Amino acid sequence: MTANQATHDEARSVLISAEGITKRFGGATAVDDVSVTVRAGEIYGIVGENGAGKSTLMRILSGILSPSEGRVLVEGTPLGVGSRAASEAGIALVHQELSLVPEMTTAENIALGAFPTRSGFIDRAELRRTAAAALEEIGVSVDLDERVARLSVALRQFVEIARAVASKPRVLILDEPTATLTPAETQYLLDMLQRLARRGMAVVYISHRIPEIFGICDRVTVLRDGRHIETVLIGETDPQRLVDSMVGRELREDLQVHRQSAPGDVVLNATGIRAPRVNGIDLQVRAGQIVGLGGLVGAGRTELVRAIIGADPRSAGTVTIATDDGLRNVSSYQAAVRHGIAYVPEERRADGLALTMSVSDNIALPNRKALSRFGVQNRAATAEMARRLADTVGLRPPNVRRDAGEYSGGNQQKVVIAKWLGRRPRLIVLDEPTRGVDVGAKAEIHRLVRELADEGAAVLVVSSDLPELLDLSDVVHVVRDGRVAGTLSGPEADERTVMSLAAGGQEVAS
Amino acid sequence: MNDSTPTATTAAEPEAAAPAPVDRSVAILVWVSQRGVFLFTATLIVFASVFVNGFASFVNLTDVFYRAAPIGIVAVGMTFVVISGNYLDLSVVAQVATSAVILIAVSNEYGIFPAVLAALLVAAVYGLVNGIAVGYFKANAVIVTLSTTYIGLGILRWLSGGSIFFGPEDGPIRALGQVEVLGLPLSAVVLVVMALLLAFMLDRTNFGFTIRAFGSNNEATRLAGVNTSRVVVGAFLLTSVAAMVAGFVLAAFSNTAVSTMADGFDFGALAAIIIGGTSVFGGRGSILRTLLGVIFVSVLTNVLVLSGVGFGWQQMAIGLLIVVAVSLDTIARKVATS
Amino acid sequence: MTEPQTLSLGDTAATDRAGRLRAVLSRRTEGRAVVLLAVVFVMALALEPLVFTAYEVTLGRVALIGLVALGLTAVILMGELDLSVASTLAVSGVVMASVPNIYAGIAAALVVGLLIGAVNAFFVVKIGINSFIATLGMLFVLRGLAFVLSGEQPVRLTNIEAGIAFGRPLVGPVSPRILLFVLVFIALQVFVTRMRVGREFYAVGGNRQAARDAGIPVDRRVFTGFMISGFVASLAGVINTLELTAADPTAGGTVLLASFAAAIIGGVALKGGRGSIVGTLLGALSLGTIEVGLTLSGVQVDIQQVFIGGVLLIAVITDPASLREATANFRLFRRREPEVQS
């Protein structure tokens, strides 16, 4: 602790003290022996890459989760479990907008769960007063009687904050609150938080956005891989150092895009793509090329690829794919699959596999036309294809008759990929292909992807795992706020640069 | 979605995560809900043969067959709808009666072939209306088929005036109804043939495959490139065809047709399917199970009737069995995913 | 850092009166019901004005349909469904008729309704069965129960005079049936718009997880909802039995259809969180008028059912969510796309 820090700390009382927090889920450790303190009147930033453990820590601090080890003390008293205990302790958590009731009014949402009543009847005047007071506290004007569903995304976020503030908390925790806000709205939010802090509230601000952290935080903690790396006063560091701390690898220069290939003709051509969270993106992928999409949570990458392939509707933009019969429009998901697009979704259990069916069945599903005659399944051909593809992807144990749900994450992911291999796709889109996958399977999946590209397929990969992204890709587009912030390839594409672009450093001309 | 919540999927999951039975009693519950029907049916038949007077007689058993066949045919057809996760088709009540009335009334006037054609047309309409409403409009199947039931019954009663239609004594329908194959009534044979056909469709054809996949995971099936709306329409069309055949069988058996003939078929078919072990949530089940369910429900009803139990009690008994079966299934699922 | 002005972030508060009116109207969910009611009234005026002159009959039918529909609304608002109302109606009627003392009979019937609601809620909340299936199962079970209790035939009221007295209008054209309906309407309207517990039904239906996170006891609310539905259905059974002076164990089928149609046309969304008691009232007005109008025109009961069934089918398909799905799914009909000139 520096002298600065000591002076800084003395002036502020400790509200929350989290000691030795460790949290395990199954076999994995999300948070590993982290200790933090939250002080009144301070804006405390917690930063880290995707998966560093920030959100888990936040949920532990707000009482939603209980730690596997360690404890959370609120002014000396241990924190109980559950949101009730947390709000009684004066801790308020600002969720993403998903925590609003769409058809209820602004006022009702702000007071949800705590409607003022007089003998069972809602005291409407008091309700409006409470809601209006909360809104005034944060300095935003919203129609109290409007259904929240009709408000803009930004306003909904502010209503969410108003609800948190209405309970007069002493600690306000926000997780990525500006993901859906424009720069002007973001600035407004930051100003508001500073006002609240000046009045004595403790604000915990979780984000990867470096400019914002440097804009308002007094103190910052860096987490990486669930561990506490450092805690510094904002004046004792600078953006680049912070990024370095987050990323943490010394020799970052050698982890760069190093795949060298001679890409062929353009396979996928997407122009002017607009959708929720996607604000006008053009994208091309060539045969034999691996294009990586980097960026932070909420940047819009998943939304982008789903809009391109038609899995979700897009409000604007055209997508064409080069097939053996010429250029074709991709106007719907079915068309996409028909023209040779393969999609490996982000949520393999929810969207990628029928868990109660066998591996063989899962593999056969997109290939059923080829594996049947006049609509009747050809058992022998199915079994043969399933075995062959399971072998290609390295499914272990290679028992294609087992239910897909019984395999580990890595194996499940291999099955999802395997089912598309039978169709020789021209474009394969993978969203977080190795999340939750063990190291061995991860390497095998990378090998598969590279082989696919070498054989001429166009590959589009979304990944929050920076080393993976750089290792696999020929070219990396960094997405931020629904737009491409920069395109990198070759030696200039290293983790630092990607992270800076993603988190809000300078725009790099592509 | 991306970073925020480390649920179990962000951690490397364990190998072979087959659900280990946490509790002995829960494991037994799971087993019962999935395989119990075989044992129960066998036990029931043995019990009835020994203890219930009049059960094990040839006359009685053939009667059970006669009664079981039409509902059974509907049940095996409706299994597709249930497996696809769309709960059930209540309008079979209207469809079966309509088919029976069409067969007799139209053949009396114009002959069998036009009658069959007309019945096919009606089945197509029912299947398409139900299927499109549920598959394309994503409306709730229970409410949609409730409405089509009343629409269908209303039209039927209006056109038929509620009267009973009789086929001629020496007519082809009466003749068909008397046919016996290897000592078994034709209706039972039809049931067996349909069951075999539908089992083949469910297990060995792409159509059946997509239905099972859709029931197991809607979204994954859609993302695998399947036109899931069409799949749902197919399931309802199939049910309508089965209902049509059941109506023919019903009409042939008694050589009569009236609009109230098929009352209770929705309940009976659902009972057979659920008690047979097909999950009402979709994805899991088979025609064989439905057949067993049909046998179980028919035998049970027969036993209750022979024991002098009133109609109301029968309904309650079977209704309770449905509720219990669904409860077991729900609990078993919860255990499996915890 | 200066204190900033209140930021205008696309503030939605309209300031002029016309704007406010428009804003208020656009929030309402009763649109379809109003349209249907208008259409029905116009057609009735043109084709069968007797519907209006014989308004006691019309209002009487509206009351019965509306009663059951109101109970249903409470449940649907939370995103659940109660299909057992038809047999609840029958069972309570039979219970009431089976008890010699008329007041004890009524009390017993209402208690039965509450109990059935509790049992439904038990299956939905404690065991976790989807309410469609749970209440469908209960529908079957209760149908059987009605038969068992009644000996498979209608049960006559012991106190027939009470039944006849009940059928006589009290104040002007207002019979006890209509009066009860109005009372239930007012009670539920107040409950759902002005009382905390009732208002929270919308939260339970609109975003159950958010409701839970906000500390609302969701399970308790679901129990309350089902018990309201059961109670109201049994009330309808009592009314039915009194007026017919006998309890029919098969009663309820057609009312079920019409009340579902009334609620759904009234704007109640099946997934919950949307809709209003007033909408259900309007829906009931439409459907009751349709039924009576058709009866008075001499249209057979069977065709009436075709109409009501048709209304329900159209209502459930034209749900805004369903329409959006349909437009997306129907685009898949286009098979071959033309080659793109590049």
Ordered list of secondary-structure elements with their pairings:
The complex is a heterotrimer of chains A (510), B (338) and C (342).
Chain A lengths: L2 H8 L3 E12 L2 E12 L3 E5 L6 H8 L7 E6 L2 E2 L4 H6 L2 E4 L11 H5 L6 E2 L2 E2 L1 H15 L14 H14 L4 E5 L7 H16 L3 E5 L3 H7 L2 E6 L2 E7 L5 H9 L18 E10 L2 E9 L3 E6 L5 H9 L6 E8 L2 E4 L3 H6 L2 E4 L3 H5 L6 H6 L7 E2 L2 E2 L1 H15 L15 H13 L5 E5 L7 H16 L3 E5 L3 H7 L2 E6 L2 E7 L5 H9 L7
Parallel strand pairs in A: 3-10, 3-11, 6-9, 9-10, 15-22, 15-23, 18-21, 21-22
Antiparallel strand pairs in A: 1-2, 1-4, 4-5, 7-8, 11-12, 13-14, 13-16, 16-17, 19-20, 23-24
Helix pairs in contact in A: 5-6, 9-18, 14-15, 15-16
Chain B lengths: L23 H28 L6 H26 L8 H19 L1 H24 L5 H20 L4 E2 L5 H7 L1 E2 L2 E2 H19 L1 H11 L1 H6 L4 H27 L1 E2 L7 H11 L11 H20 L4 H27 L1
Antiparallel strand pairs in B: 1-4, 2-3
Chain C lengths: L16 H11 L3 H17 L2 H4 L1 H23 L7 H14 L3 H26 L3 H20 L4 E2 L3 H8 L8 H19 L1 H11 L1 H6 L4 H27 L1 E2 L5 H13 L11 H20 L4 H17 L2 H11 L12
Helix pairs in contact in C: 2-14, 4-9, 4-10, 4-12, 4-13, 4-14, 5-6, 5-7, 5-12, 6-7, 6-12, 8-12, 9-10, 10-12, 13-14, 13-15, 14-15
Q: Helix count of chain B?
A: 13
| Largest interface summary | B-C, 51 and 56 residues
Q: How many beta-strand elements of chain B?
A: 4
Tell me the count of domains of chain C. Answer: 1
Largest sheet of chain C: 2 strands, antiparallel
Q: Choose one word for the global shape of chain B.
A: globular
Order of the strands making up the biggest sheet of chain C? 1-2
Number of strands of chain C: 2
State the oligomer: heterotrimer
The radius of gyration computed from the alpha-carbon positions of chain B, rounded to a whole number of angstroms, is 21 Å
* Main sheet record of chain B: 2 strands, antiparallel
Q: Helix tally of chain C?
A: 16
Helix proportion range of chain C: over 70%
Fold and architecture overview:
The complex is a heterotrimer of chains A (510), B (338) and C (342). In chain A, 34% of the residues lie in helices and 27% in strands. Chain A is an alpha/beta fold. The longest helix of chain B is centred in the N-terminal third of the chain and has 28 residues, at 24-51. Chain B has a domain at 60-166 and 177-263. In chain B, the strands form 2 sheets. Chain B has a two-stranded antiparallel sheet with strand order 1-4. In chain B, strands 2-3 form a two-stranded antiparallel sheet. Chain B contains 13 helices and 4 strands. Chain B has 338 residues and is an all-alpha fold. In chain B, helix 3 (92-110) runs antiparallel to helix 4 (112-135) and helix 11 packs across helix 12 (287-306). Chain C has a single domain, classed as Orthogonal Bundle (ABC transporter involved in vitamin B12 uptake, BtuC). With 342 residues, chain C is an all-alpha fold. Mean pLDDT of chain C is 84; it is low at 1-8 and 333-339. At the B-C interface, helix 4, helix 5, helix 11 and helix 13 of B face helix 7, helix 13, helix 15 and helix 16 of C.
